[in-house]
Amino acid sequence: MDKQLEVILEDLEVSKADKDWVTYDTLSEGQTLENRHLLKHFLILEKGTLHLENQNTQILQFFTSGDIVFLSPFDMNVDMQLKLVCDQTAKIVFVDREYFLNFAANKASYMEWLLTSVLSNSAALCFELMKHDLPADERIVYTLQRLCKKTKTEEEATRDYYEVPNFLNKTKMAQYGAMSRKNLYNKLEILEETDQVKQKKEKVFVTATTI
């Protein structure tokens, strides 16, 4: 979480007139966030990893530290079709939308942060949906690269291969790439032959070279 977000959260906490305007929660791996939390509040992921999945358990998007989920699934009438699931222990902040918007009306930098975050999330989801136009092997590489770039450290960014996070096992990999596990295994073997992917024991590494 960057310094600007830390300052915003501290300011919101100190200035709130109602304890429900800013609340906190922790999710453990495998837990599902109840959508009712997003009825009046938006979510800021302080730490950890979440993913958005549909009713067919297809993973649509990952969220990491500093990301937000602003729109309410109820407003979009998708509260029964989509859910957020925890991949790594997540520390979450819920901020009342009306409180934040009123607060940010007098702080241009806060509104700018919100708009930038919302646009970034929207763009990320568009790219996630566009990947389905790619052939299966390219889709796997693209999928793994996008996630690794969100979770990598500065040191890892200089390497030739990214190590795929442990929480993304083969089952989730298939769900994220929108394919069967059998197809995933076959494609991983083909990608290994071209050095785009490496597998060592239970770990998977993907090339850092953009496809």
Query: How many whole angstroms does the radius of gyration measure?
Result: 18 Å
The CATH topology annotation of the largest domain reads as: Jelly Rolls
Shape: elongated
On the 0-100 scale, what is the average pLDDT?
90
Characterize the largest beta sheet: strand count, sense, and whether it forms a barrel: 6 strands, antiparallel
Distance between the termini: 29 Å
Spans of at least 5 consecutive residues whose pLDDT stays below 50 are none
Tally of helical segments: 6
CATH H-level homologous superfamily name of the largest domain: Jelly Rolls
Strand-pairing-aware structural class: alpha+beta
Query: What is the count of distinct domains?
Result: 2
- SS elements, strand count: 9
Give, in order, the helices and strands: HEEEEEEHHHEHHEE
**What is the level-2 CATH architecture name of the largest domain?**
Sandwich
Helix content: 25-40%
Strand percentage = 25-35%
What is the CATH first-level class name of the largest domain? Mainly Beta
Keywords: Activator
Protein name: Crp/Fnr family transcriptional regulator
Organism: Listeria ivanovii (strain ATCC BAA-678 / PAM 55)
Brief summary:
The protein is α+β, with helices and mostly antiparallel strands and 211 residues long.
Walk me through the structure.
The longest helix has 23 residues, at 108-130. Helix 4 (136-151) packs across helix 6 and helix 5 (170-177) crosses helix 6 (181-193). The model has no long low-confidence stretch (mean pLDDT 90). The strands form two sheets. Strands 1, 2, 3, 4, 5 and 6 form a six-stranded antiparallel β-sheet that branches. A three-stranded antiparallel β-sheet has the order 7-9-8. 38% of the residues lie in helices and 27% in strands. It folds into two domains: 3-129, Jelly Rolls, CATH 2.60.120.10; 134-207, Arc Repressor Mutant, subunit A (Orthogonal Bundle), CATH 1.10.10. The protein contains six helices and nine strands; from the N terminus they run H-E-E-E-E-E-E-H-H-H-E-H-H-E-E. It is elongated and about 60 Å long. With 211 residues, it is of the alpha+beta class. It has helices spanning 3-15, 97-104, 108-130, 136-151, 170-177, 181-193; strands at residues 22-27, 32-33, 41-54, 59-64, 68-69, 82-96, 161-163, 197-200, 203-207. The chain starts with a helix and ends with a strand. A hairpin with a 4-residue loop joins strand 3 (41-54) and strand 4 (59-64). This is Crp/Fnr family transcriptional regulator. It comes from Listeria ivanovii (strain ATCC BAA-678 / PAM 55). InterPro entries: cNMP-bd_dom_sf (IPR018490), RmlC-like_jellyroll (IPR014710). Keywords: Activator.
